[in-house]
Design brief:
The structure holds two protein chains of two kinds. Chain A has eight helices and ten strands. By secondary structure, chain A is α/β, with parallel strands linked by helices. A six-stranded mixed beta sheet of chain A has the order 6-7-8-3-9-10, with helices on both faces. A four-stranded antiparallel beta sheet of chain A has the order 2-1-4-5, with helices on one face. In chain A, helix 4 runs antiparallel to helix 5 and helix 7 packs across helix 8. The radius of gyration of chain A is 19 Å and the shape is globular. Chain B is mostly helical. Chain B is 75% helix and 0% strand. The longest helix of chain B is centred in the C-terminal third of the chain and has 39 residues. Chain B starts with 25 loop residues before the first helix and ends in an 8-residue tail after the last helix. The chains are: A alpha/beta, B mainly alpha. Chains A and B meet through strand 6 and helix 3 of A and helix 9 and helix 10 of B. The structure holds adenosine-5'-triphosphate (ATP) and magnesium ion (MG). The site of magnesium ion has 2 residues of chain A, from helix 1.
């Protein structure tokens, strides 16, 4: 399960010279949020993306999810260009995305239901996942009765339920308080290791929190200030399974300082550009 | 959604009773209702007293006791239940038609930029113009039989419903639609599982307005071109100077109005409990 030793593994996601942007509504001018972006993700890698605010991380993730189109370059999943959303990917949204009129169980089952897979087996998978993310006894609750941490557990379970090939997470823990966030990071690593329905998964995790990125990922990609491109890919060769104690190790501190330095540098450029 | 109730099925902790717990008194629990009843009672009393004091002539003003007598007369002469059923039937049928048209149409218009641009001004105008002015035209088109009455009920109920459903569909949280897309839900699934429940609070607010207007529409239709219904009873009894009988019929209409709006409010509580002030 080592993170960096995967040179021979199959390429899961190939990003080549990608540019993504938005057209301004008034004058129709194109504005690039992501430009000259190139990298590859291997099978079963857990990738974290960090970068200054507004550098196009969400934009990039939405493009991988198939929600927006790329303007140029190529974006291939398992060797096929991404055309739109597909059952091979799911997205954990930042917040406010659970359906308030559905119970925990019904929310977790939504993806399977939408894809016509909520049969006997699907229902078992839903209840297994609810147990796995530690929500036993909350099956019949509605989102407004849940705390922020519980909501994000449901969000995670919903994304895992469809058994995606590639899991996309957009700052899933950003809205949580520091303690809950630590708990959720541990939960995510645990769930990641425990949920082997298809034997291993690839994940793309966006965060603002550098220690979170280093703790969770096999590899951290640092994005530049807007328009986003890859500045550096940092291999995190900390042993797995990781427990929170690893955060106090010397190796962790070194990797953390390195990534933090890169991010601060880009953030400074981003502030300078805004002036 | 009280948190203090026992929920054995979820094994949730129940707050232990303490010496300081006090069940609120009956008056405290039902204060709004009691105050409302008291207000109505005072007005009725004043009315009855001014009749007894011969300040007004009951031949013109009727009186609360007279209206009760009138109710008995209506009941005895078959002018109570059948007309009530007729009115309710107009309202019910009209509401069903309005919902069958208004909810799907509203969802589609609200989600389509082009349709919304095309139809929104028209619908807004139709909503603002008092529907009663269309009465002569509707009579001209449909005559004065049951169809015409139904048309008026639908005409009056449809637009408030439509307006609310449209604004609900337009205000539908974009996040929900994104979730729907990410998990590859088809358009019908999205409409049924996301757009419909997501706009349910608006739909029910629309229904609450619509049901009130449907009743007005039904009564107006009966007043002007009726051969049955409570509005017709009011019309004929007043023409015969039987104010007590008219008042009785009006009281029945009031009860229907309250029951209908309360019914929708109850439905709102049942169906949109999830959107009630996020706790
Ligand atoms: N729907 C949109 N229309 C137009 N411009 C947009 C849209 N969404 C984002 N942008 C712009 O694209 C750029 C990148 O935005 P994006 O949300 O991808 O950044 P981000 O890296 O996710 O930022 P953060 O870390 O703050 O979430 C920003 O300059 C933003 O203003
Ligand atoms: Mg973002």
């Amino acid at each position: 399960m080592a993170g960096s030793g995967g040179r021979d593994r199959a390429v899961k996601l190939a990003v080549r010279d990608v540019r993504i942007g938005y057209r301004e509504r008034r004058n129709g001018r194109f504005f690039a949020a992501v430009q000259n972006l190139s990298f590859e993700i291997k099978d079963n890698e857990f990738i974290a993306i960090v970068g200054p605010s507004g550098c196009g991380k969400t934009t990039f993730l939405s493009a991988v999810a198939g929600l927006i189109e790329i303007a140029s370059g190529s974006l291939e999943l398992n060797g096929h260009a991404i055309q739109g959303p597909g059952p091979d990917r799911s997205l954990v949204f930042q917040q406010h995305s659970l359906f308030p009129w559905r119970t925990v169980t019904a929310n977790v089952g939504f993806g399977l239901e939408a894809q016509g897979r909520l049969d006997e087996h699907g229902r078992r998978r839903v209840s297994d996942l609810i147990e796995l993310v530690g929500l036993n006894g909350k099956e019949g609750k509605y989102p407004r009765e849940l705390s922020g941490g519980m909501s994000q557990r449901v969000n995670l379970a919903r994304a895992l339920a469809t058994d995606p090939d590639l899991l996309l997470l957009d700052e899933p823990f950003a809205a949580l308080d520091a303690q809950t966030r630590e708990v959720m990071q541990e939960e995510l690593t645990r769930v990641w290791q425990a949920d082997s329905a298809s034997g291993g998964k690839t994940a793309l995790f966006i965060t603002h929190d550098v220690p979170e990125a280093v703790y969770l990922a096999d590899r951290v990609l640092v994005f530049s200030a807007s328009p986003g491109r890859l500045v550096e890919s940092v291999d995190i060769d900390l042993p797995r399974p990781r427990d929170p104690g690893v955060k106090r190790s010397k190796e962790f501190a070194e990797l953390n300082d390195h990534v933090l330095g890169l991010v601060m540098q880009q953030a400074a450029i981003s502030r300078g550009g805004a002036r | 959604m009280t948190q203090t109730q026992t929920r054995p099925e979820t094994g949730e902790a129940v707050l232990p009773a303490t010496a300081l717990d006090r069940r609120p008194s009956f008056v405290a629990r039902n204060r709004t209702v009691l105050l409302g009843l008291l207000g109505a009672f005072v007005v009725l009393l004043a009315w009855q007293l001014s009749v007894w004091a011969e300040l007004v002539d009951p031949k013109f003003s009727s009186s609360p006791f007279g209206a009760v007598e009138g109710l008995k007369y209506l009941n005895d002469s078959g002018l109570l239940w059948q007309p009530t059923l007729d009115t309710l039937q107009s309202v019910g049928l009209g509401m069903l038609i309005s919902m069958a048209i208004g909810i799907p149409l509203g969802l589609v218009i609200g989600r389509s930029v082009v349709l919304h641009g095309l139809l929104e001004p028209l619908i807004g105008i139709m909503y603002s113009v008092p529907f009663v002015v269309f009465l002569p035209i509707i009579i001209f088109w449909f005559g004065i039989d049951g169809t015409a009455r139904l048309v008026i009920v639908v005409w009056s109920a449809l637009f408030p419903l439509l307006i609310n459903v449209i604004s609900g569909a337009r205000n539908l949280d974009g996040n929900y639609l994104q979730v729907s897309r990410v998990f590859c839900a088809g358009p019908l699934r999205t409409l049924w599982s996301v757009a419909l429940p997501g706009t349910m609070p608006y739909i029910l607010a629309g229904l609450r307005q619509a049901v009130g207007r449907a009743l007005v529409g039904a009564i107006v239709a009966e007043l002007f071109m009726g051969t049955s219904g409570l509005g017709y009873v009011v019309q004929t009894e007043t023409a015969n100077f039987q104010l007590d009988h008219s008042m009785a019929a009006i009281a029945v209409i009031a009860v229907i109005a309250v029951v209908l709006t309360r019914g929708v409010a109850w439905l709102e509580n049942r169906l949109t409990f999830w959107s009630a002030s996020v706790g």
